[in-house]
């Protein structure tokens, strides 16, 4: 469907009470926030960067490339 089950989307369709990140309530939980900027997942991003290099910071590469997607699940 082109959507991720994150609070921003879930709130929009009435499945979550809030659109905010469950770890950092000041921001909406979007794909970009979840994959690139959320401080809660800093350690996981560091590990991912060790595996994928600079591509680990690409919002376009991560959810679509077959090399990256196994590391996200």
Description:
It contains 4 helices and no strands. The protein has 73 residues and is mainly α. The radius of gyration is 13 Å and the shape is globular. The mean pLDDT is 92. It has helices at 7-12, 31-37, 42-52, 69-72.
Choose one word for the global shape: globular
Rg measurement, Å? 13 Å
**Tally of separate helices:** 4
The proportion of residues in beta strands is under 5%
- Alpha-beta classification: mainly alpha
Sheet with the most strands, sense and barrel status: none
Uncertain spans: none
Order of helices and strands: HHHH
Helix content percent band = 25-40%
Number of strands: 0
> Averaging pLDDT over every residue, what do you get?
92
End-to-end gap: 18 Å
Topology:
Layout: H1 7-12, H2 31-37, H3 42-52, H4 69-72
Keywords summarizing the entry:
mainly alpha; 4 helices
Describe what is shown at a glance.
It contains 4 helices and no strands.
